[in-house]
Amino acid sequence: MKIKVVPGASRTGIAGWLGDCLKVRVSQPPEKGRANAAVEALLCAAINLPAGSVKVVSGSTSQHKVVEVTGVDDAELRGRLDSV
Q1: What angle do CA 50, 75, 77 make, to 5 degrees?
Q2: Partner residues linked to 64 by β-bridges
Q3: Which of 14, 15, 26, 75 has its CA 20 to 30 A from that of 35?
Q4: pLDDT of the chain along its 84 residues, tens only?
Q5: What is the rounded end-to-end Cα distance, in angstroms, of the chain?
Q6: Reduced to 3 DSSP states, what percent helix, strand and coil does the chain have, rounded to the nearest 5?
Q7: Amino acid 49: pLDDT
Q8: H-helix or E-strand containing 38?
């Protein structure tokens, strides 16, 4: 799944869809992987999956990232994110 991350935001949360890309805001700064860890934790909590089910697999130093989600198929993932 493609996401766009806004690190250092005033609040953490899912902002919504930008086409096929999910926009996510995290308050952690983009230093030493803190923002990436916050994104993974936020998405796990938002879609009700255990920790470690979401992993940044591409774009670790970019605002545009690709995350891998295990334990749920694409249609169910989109449905859970739409209800957040």
Answers
A1: 25
A2: 4
A3: 75
A4: 999 999 999 999 999 999 999 999 999 999 999 999 999 999 999 999 999 999 999 999 999 999 999 999 999 999 999 888
A5: 16
A6: 25, 30, 40
A7: 95
A8: helix 34-46
Q: What is the helix (H) or strand (E) element at residue 17, kind and residue range?
A: strand 13-18
| Residue 6 parent element (H or E) | strand 2-6
Q: Among residues 58, 29, 54, 30, which one has the least CA distance to residue 43?
A: 54
Q: Beta strand 21-25 with 2-6: parallel, antiparallel or unpaired? A: parallel
Return the pLDDT at 84: 80
Helix (H), strand (E) at residue 79: helix 74-82
Q: Which residues contact 27 (CB under 8 A, 6 or more apart)?
A: 8, 9, 10, 11, 12, 38
